[in-house]
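Need residues for this backbone.
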C-alpha cells in the first residue's frame, strides 16, 4: 500500500512542495516543529534507512545537498539548522518512506532529551 509520502510524490495527495527534481521531492511538514520544517523524500520509495543499499549512496548525498540548498532558500543557513532521519520504533519513525527532516528558524535546544 502506498504511504502518504508516496502519494505526495505521485501527486495523488496535495502538499506544500518547495523543491522537486528527478530524485527527490521536498515539502513542508503538516505539523511543523519549528518555523522551518521541510521533509526531503526520495521519489522512489525506500521504507527506512535500514533499507538503503550501496547503490543508494549518491541519492543519500543528494538529499543532504538539497537540504543545504533549501536551508539557504529558507534563510536559515547562517543561524543554523538540524537534519534528522528517524528510523523504526526507537527513532520515532511514523511514515515508512525514508525522509530527511530540515528544521530551523529558532534555537532547537539539546539534540535528544536526556533521561
Ligand atoms: P517521522 O516521525 O520521522 O516518520 O516523521 C513523519 C512526519 O511526517 C511528521 O513530522 C508528520 O508531521 C509529517 N506528515 C505526516 N503526514 C503529512 C502530510 N500529509 N504532509 C506533510 N507532512 C506530513
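Answer:
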Amino acid at each position: 500500500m502506498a504511504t502518504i509520502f508516496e502519494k505526495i510524490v505521485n501527486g495523488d495527495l496535495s502538499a506544500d512542495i518547495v523543491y522537486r527534481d528527478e530524485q527527490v521531492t521536498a515539502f513542508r511538514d503538516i505539523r511543523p516543529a519549528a518555523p522551518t520544517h521541510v521533509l526531503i523524500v526520495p521519489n522512489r520509495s525506500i521504507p527506512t534507512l535500514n533499507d538503503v543499499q550501496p547503490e543508494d549512496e549518491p541519492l543519500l548525498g543528494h538529499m543532504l545537498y538539497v537540504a543545504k540548498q533549501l536551508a539557504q532558500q529558507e534563510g536559515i543557513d547562517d543561524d543554523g539548522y538540524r537534519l534528522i532521519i528517524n528510523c523504526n520504533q526507537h527513532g520515532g519513525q511514523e511514515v515508512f518512506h525514508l525522509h530527511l527532516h530540515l528544521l530551523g528558524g529558532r534555537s532547537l535546544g539539546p539534540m535528544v532529551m536526556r533521561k
